[in-house]
Amino acid sequence: MKTLVSGFVHTPGLHCGSTAMADLLNFKGIAVSEPMAFGLGSGADFYYFDTPGMKPSAWLSGRSGSFEDDLCATLGLAYREFFDKSSDAAWERARARIDAGEPLSVQADVRYLDYYATDTHFNGHRLILAGYDDDGVYVADTHFEGLQRLPKESFAKARGSRVPPSFGGPNAWWEVETPAAPLAITREHVARAVHHAAARFFEGPTGFNGEPGFSLFIAGLPNWTALPDAAWCARFAYQCIEKRGTGGGCFRTLYARFLDEAAMNFNDRDFQRLAALAHEASAKWTLLARAFKSASEETSPDFAALVPHARAMFDAERKLADLSLTTR
After folding, report:
1. Using CA atoms, how far apart are residues 95 and 88, in angstroms rounded to an integer?
2. Dihedral over Cα of 147, 98, 95, 103: its sign
3. Cβ partners under 8 Å of residue 284, min gap 6
4. Which CA distances in Å does 87 have to 111, 133, 153?
5. Which tens digit of pLDDT belongs to each residue from 33-78?
6. Are 66 and 43 in contact (CB under 8 A)?
7. In this structure, are residues 130 and 10 in contact, taking their beta carbons and an 8 Å threshold?
8. 233: which strand partners?
9. How many CB atoms lie within 10 A of CB 261?
10. Half-sphere exposure (CA, 13 Å, Cβ side) for 159?
11. What is the three-class DSSP state of 302?
């Protein structure tokens, strides 16, 4: 017998996390587009790692690790995480929520999602569990239309994977609190999210993100030439900027669309100016991505030649953050 969450509708999007959260919020009666969800979660960030032993040896990310929590905090909603060491116990808990008419956000390793047909592991993927039958589940996933059916065995492997980055640990699930009263997005919500993203840029709380992360990246980029997997690092950097669910421009295109929408919805010149800077940052990221792609195709790439592109991108990021801090 098939059991689906009544009233749940999946709207295909660009990034797994923001698509999943937009789906959940719309189900809760909070009307948001994917770009609006991404921006309200202060989703644009920057992380850089070149720790020995990593594969690839150096990599970057443009998405905040706390996006989902920040989104719900901005809107005043609880975002609850639960997980079990036992796969069976986790499934029984999740099935009970589906039976109660509640869709859940799920962490999964794309390697075991049959409809992707890939051998590549990535255990930071987000999708929505929206139903089940006797031997399968129904999930909403990013750009796919409608619900995808997945055998329960594959689903158990996907949610129980322990490969990196393993956000939240194995068998992790999340649910969004239903607001006590109708909730509409306000200018104050947008301004709060924009300010938070800018403050995090300058604070760089982990030491690897924000402005400190950019400094590490630019200083370390010339050293990529000596990495044993230099070509793969360059190709992976290109993919992390332009592909892999970023929407292009290292998530900045998605963030710019959020600001475009806010500027239009609230007839706000401050958001309009921020949107222009976000589009500029996105364009600079794309130029850097193209340089990485070209470097990945060279026998002996000179990564020092990419530093001007990286500095131009960082200058655009800093202009966006500077103006964002003044927005109230």
Report:
1. 10
2. positive
3. 309, 312, 313, 315, 316
4. 18, 17, 11
5. 999 999 999 999 999 999 877 789 999 999 999 999 999 999 999 9
6. no
7. yes
8. none
9. 19
10. 30
11. coil
Tokens of 155: 């689903």
| Beta-carbon contacts of residue 43 (< 8 Å; ≥ 6 apart) | 15, 17, 18, 63, 64, 67, 70, 71, 197, 251, 254, 255
Burial classification of residue 228, based on how many CB atoms lie within 10 Å of its CB (0-12 exposed, 13-18 middle, 19 or more buried): exposed
Q: Does residue 82 have a pLDDT over 90?
A: no
Measured from the Cβ of residue 23, the count of other Cβ atoms closer than 10 Å reads 26
Instruction: Give the tens place of pLDDT for each residue, 132-147.
Output: 999 999 999 999 999 9
Read off the DSSP letter of residue 15.
Answer: S
pLDDT tens string 2-24: 999 999 999 999 999 999 999 99
What are the start-end ranges of the E strands in the chain?
Answer: 3-4, 44-49, 59-63, 79-83, 104-108, 125-132, 136-140, 148-151, 172-176
Q: Give CA torsion, residues 24, 249, 244, 198, to 10 deg.
A: -50
Reference 251, options 50, 59, 60, 57; nearest CA is 60
* pLDDT the model gives residue 167: 67
Alpha-carbon span 146 to 9, nearest angstrom? 8
Dihedral over alpha carbons 260, 37, 310, 164 (to 10 degrees): -170
Say how far residue 269 (Cα) sits from the centre of its chain.
27
Contact between 81 and 168 under an 8 Å Cβ cutoff? The reply is: yes
Give the domain ranges of the chain.
3-31+79-176, 187-325
Report angle CA 69, 186, 184 to the nearest 5 degrees. Answer: 80
